[in-house]
């Protein structure tokens, strides 16, 4: 599936966002190894801490649907921003944990602007699962 098709699906997911506080809707579309798309949108909460971003919603949904970490093929994220949207730091860390470093990440906005990057480029020097293993197991 190409970037444009994925960004269109992310835009559809964006319409489902629950954002009564910020009114800032974000959508994501995650492509798995079987060619299935897992949609995600941001879901806010009055307590703020439980709020979940679109990227994490799509990733967590895919894991809950049985997809294993490292099997994802690409993710597209879209928002109503001046430039193509950028994932927050927490989402970047979750991408590092669940996706291959070279996995494509398509970032877009509602004006049709977009760019392609990778998980590794979004979070250089990332803290990874291997960093939490005891030294003798590395």
SSE blueprint:
Blueprint: H1 3-14, E1 26-31, E2 37-41, H2 54-64, E3 74-79, H3 89-98, E4 104-109, E5 114-118, H4 119-122
Parallel strand pairs: 3-4
Antiparallel strand pairs: 1-2, 1-3, 4-5
Give a short synopsis of this structure.
The protein has helices at 3-14, 54-64, 89-98, 119-122, and strands spanning 26-31, 37-41, 74-79, 104-109, 114-118. With 138 residues, it is α+β, with helices and mostly antiparallel strands.
Strand portion: 15-25%
CATH fold-level label: Cytidine Deaminase, domain 2
Rg on CA atoms, Å: 15 Å
Order of helices and strands: HEEHEHEEH
CATH superfamily: Cytidine Deaminase, domain 2
Distance between the termini: 36 Å
Number of domains: 1
Overall average residue pLDDT: 95
β-strand number: 5
List unreliable stretches of 5+ residues.
none
The share of residues in helices is 25-40%
| CATH architectural designation | 3-Layer(aba) Sandwich
Structural class: alpha+beta
Highest-level CATH class: Alpha Beta
Largest sheet: 5 strands, mixed
Structure, described:
- One of its GO terms (cellular component) is cytosol.
- The chain is α+β, with helices and mostly antiparallel strands and 138 residues long.
- It is 27% helix and 20% strand.
- The protein contains four helices and five strands, in the order H-E-E-H-E-H-E-E-H.
- The chain has helices spanning 3-14, 54-64, 89-98, 119-122, and strands spanning 26-31, 37-41, 74-79, 104-109, 114-118.
- The chain has a five-stranded mixed sheet with strand order 2-1-3-4-5.
- The longest helix has 12 residues, at 3-14.
- The N and C termini lie far apart (36 Å).
- The mean pLDDT is 95.
């Amino acid at each position: 599936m190409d970037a444009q098709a994925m960004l269109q699906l992310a835009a559809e997911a964006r319409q489902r966002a629950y954002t009564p506080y910020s009114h800032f809707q974000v959508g994501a579309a995650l492509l798995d190894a079987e060619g299935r798309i897992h949609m995600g949108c941001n879901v806010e909460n009055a307590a703020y801490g439980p709020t979940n971003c679109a990227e994490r919603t799509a990733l967590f949904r895919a894991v809950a649907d049985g997809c294993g970490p490292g099997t994802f093929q690409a993710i597209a994220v879209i928002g109503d921003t001046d430039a193509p949207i950028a994932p927050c730091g927490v989402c970047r860390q979750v991408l590092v944990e669940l996706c291959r470093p070279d996995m494509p990440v398509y970032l877009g906005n509602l004006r049709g602007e977009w760019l392609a990057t990778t998980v590794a480029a979004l979070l250089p020097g990332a803290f990874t699962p291997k960093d939490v293993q005891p030294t003798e197991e590395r």
